[in-house]
């Protein structure tokens, strides 16, 4: 019976350890977000996620890895659970900003909790790249137009000088040809 006693003591001493690789997440509207955690403990724990905001606390989901998750009505079809304790939120909105608290409880009762703060913004950071590309494009177009105007201006100037020296019998046809030439 000594081996059994040792393993129980080890179990009690060990408890639950919880690791959160990314405690703060910045997201944009309509993004799918992974609230990533990892835990270690003896046996199969109960994992629970709650959401807290200025409105109060709301339970999202509770499950034992390997079993069906009990997802609250407010998050039905918006949450996916993983056996390592992580959850994925689909198509987040600004209203999803807040603190997400995960609690991992061992069957002997010891538990650990961790918090992930999610900030969802309207401004799409991907759009900054688009804006930069668009601005570069505008600058290129502006440069092209300026150089075209300069070339045309030079052409027109040459054309005017030539026209001034032309003889009176020169036809408009010749002038048009002159224009095409430059």
UniProtKB/TrEMBL annotation:
It comes from the Eukaryota. Gene3D superfamilies: Immunoglobulins (2.60.40.10). Pfam families: Receptor_2B4. The gene is VSTM5. Coiled coil: none annotated. The keyword Endoplasmic reticulum does not apply. Keywords: Glycoprotein, Membrane, Signal, Transmembrane, Transmembrane helix. The lineage of its organism: Eukaryota, Metazoa, Chordata, Craniata, Vertebrata. This is V-set and transmembrane domain containing 5. It is found in: Membrane. PANTHER family: SIGNALING LYMPHOCYTIC ACTIVATION MOLECULE (PTHR12080), V-SET AND TRANSMEMBRANE DOMAIN-CONTAINING PROTEIN 5 (PTHR12080:SF93). The keyword Cell membrane does not apply. Residues 22-121 form the Immunoglobulin domain.
